[in-house]
Amino acid sequence: MKRELNFRAFDNGQMLRMPISTNYGISRFFGILRDDAIIMQYTGSNEDGINGTEVFEGDIIENCNTKELQEVYWNEDKSAWWCSYIDQKGRIVSLNESLGNLNEVVGNIYEGVANKLKHK
What we know:
Structural class: alpha+beta
Strand order of the largest sheet: 8-7-6-5-9
Order of helices and strands: EEHEEEEEEHEH
Number of helices: 3
Strand content: 35-45%
Oligomer: single chain
Low-confidence stretches: none
Largest sheet: 5 strands, antiparallel
Shape: globular
Mean pLDDT: 80
Helix content: 10-25%
Number of domains: 1
């Protein structure tokens, strides 16, 4: 099975993406970024049942039924992608389990989406 490597970066107030299919593409992408850019890796998952959005670390996922928000992150201890509930400190769930519950990506932590949604 081929694992898709894909990255995006929040750099100087903008979210940047570049197709990365070769080592040259990877070095080109990382070569244009500033030193303080925040790099986010693609999780290999997308929301097949909702709208096909690719899921990256730092994304905010909203449960369509409960409206609870979760942040996607890499869990070092479990060596897997997980989600941490934004309003419930310490509550976590695997990304696969989260995406199976009619959730959708509504933004990311770097563009202030979590704060906007909490104050709807």
